[in-house]
Amino acid sequence: MKTPLTDMNPAEIADHLRIKPFQGKQIFRWIHQKRVFDFDRMTDLSKELRARLAESYSANQLTLVNMSTSPRAVGTKKALFRLADGETVESVLIREKDRITICLSTQVGCAVKCSFCATGHSGYTRNLTPGEIVEQALYLLADENMGERSPNIVYMGMGEPFRNYDATVRSIRLLMSPDGLGIGARRITVSTVGEVKGIEQFANEDWQVRLSVSLHAANDAKRTELIPLNKKYPIAQLKEAIRTYFDKTGRQITFEWTLLDGVNDSEQDAKELAALANSLKAHVNLIPYNPVHGLGYSPPPRDRCEDFRDMLETAGVSATLRKEKGQDIDAACGQLRRRHIDAT
Predict the structure, then answer these.
(1) What are the CA-CA distances from residue 246 to residues 189, 192, 323 (Å)?
(2) Residue 90 annotated to the active site
(3) I need a surface site. Which of 31, 63, 117, 247 has the fewest CB within 10 A?
(4) Domain 3-58 carries which CATH code?
């Protein structure tokens, strides 16, 4: 089996191949900056080195299975990738004028099993490697003319990032490498469903990477129905971890709140969320639900979503209501993979 290079930084490539440091940087730049995965096209490498690479190494671990582009949300596209072991993962590129956001997966499936999420209903298989995470971004950016712009990266795809902590952190450092995409830390957000131990560990990282928490309910009874992990880490414990994170880092966190019709969109839900958000100085990101066939949830009408946002703002909470993007291409987490599995 060939050794994948996308798990390595430039120094590690040079050390592993026993070549000069500048050559390690050349290989890394071809893969990460130019998104070239064919060693024969790496023309500033010697023929001997290219032959050696082709014999024993691979420049990519993913194979593109499907790329769907949304005609309704112009520029939004979703990719399904096959891994070397035959498993599949998905990721999304969302375009908002000149701004590009890429949503990455960290696991094949997910063991958290949030009741409204397609990924959890497909089960958990394994963690992704750092290179498998990074390559999702490389593929989605391959046809993008970014110029001097930098994309935003959000770890909000398939899986719970803090249950694959080491690979997630390493992939972030690879994405931040100045010899690669060079993405600034503040353009990267990791979203957790509430893995308290991961939040505590994340607070000790020496960087400005952002943290968001998928909350979806602000009382334990309802949150446990939606997110079974709440039994292990109830809101009081989660709140304490977030407070410690803020005290250590000084960085504001964001609560992600998927709006579910008749479930978490009432005035009482808004009051409970406002109280929690204000106590932690948190921003709130409201996301109308992207329906998943067979799960029984739907998004509220747009006017109710707006009313919910307005109630939060009236209570002094900084809140953003996202536009729906990608329903026509199964852009919700795990949908495209689930449809692919069902078809095969």
Answers:
(1) 15, 15, 28
(2) yes
(3) 247
(4) 1.10.150.530
Distance CA 45, CA 67 (A): 31
Per the residue annotation, which of 110, 114, 305, 333 is the catalytic one? 333
Q: Catalytic residue among 48, 90, 200, 267, which?
A: 90
- For the record, the structure tokens of 282 come out as 């948190």
Nearest to 27, CA basis, from 1, 2, 57: 57
Task: Tell me if 3-58 shares its fold with 63-343.
Answer: no
Per-domain residue ranges of the chain: 3-58, 63-343
Would you call 333 a catalytic residue per the annotation? yes
Q: Are 162 and 197 in contact (CB under 8 A)?
A: yes
3-state helix, strand, coil in the chain (%, to 5): 40, 20, 40
Note whether 263 and 234 are within 8 A (CB): no
Contacts of 165 (CB under 8 A, 6+ apart): 198, 201
Q: Which CATH architecture has domain 63-343?
A: Alpha-Beta Barrel (3.20)
The predicted-structure confidence for 237-289, as pLDDT tens digits, reads as follows: 999 999 999 999 999 999 999 999 999 999 999 999 999 999 999 999 999 99
| Tens-digit pLDDT profile for residues 178-232 | 999 999 999 999 999 999 999 999 999 999 999 999 999 999 999 999 999 999 9
